[in-house]
Amino acid sequence: MDVPLHYSKTIVRVRYAETDQMGVVYHTNFLIWFEVGRTEYIREKGLSYRTMEEKGVYLPVLESHCRIVASARFEDAVEIRTWIDEMKTRKMTFAYEARRGEEILARGTTVHVCLNERRRPIRIPEWVRDGLLPGRVRDGAGNGTSPPA
Length: 149
What we know:
The longest helix has 17 residues, at 28-44. The chain is built from 3 helices and 5 strands. By secondary structure, the chain is of the alpha+beta class.
């Protein structure tokens, strides 16, 4: 998995409750951190889950994958890198890397389908597609791509 030029970067600090009896991060926490990274990626693009859902657009997870290659421990600062790996007509794939400094701890993906308010598959609306694709970053004043009124 190649990391693109544009990705979102989110730092999470490992909490004691996120570790197991062996003193390492319990595996499911990587998926939780990927969600944190995805939410921040969307926010950096000037959108939010709340805004999309208020407009009748939902992006549930269809599939998730995580490969852990090194352990993280209590109080480690873990950087979550998030980007869109693929966008199709009705589905999109987010990709993630969890790092401690330059060391890769985990890599993963989540696949999402676009649904309407009746929970039926729909084409990804243009305002969502344009808002989330690379190259769209909110400016310092908080301006970004917005959904139609």
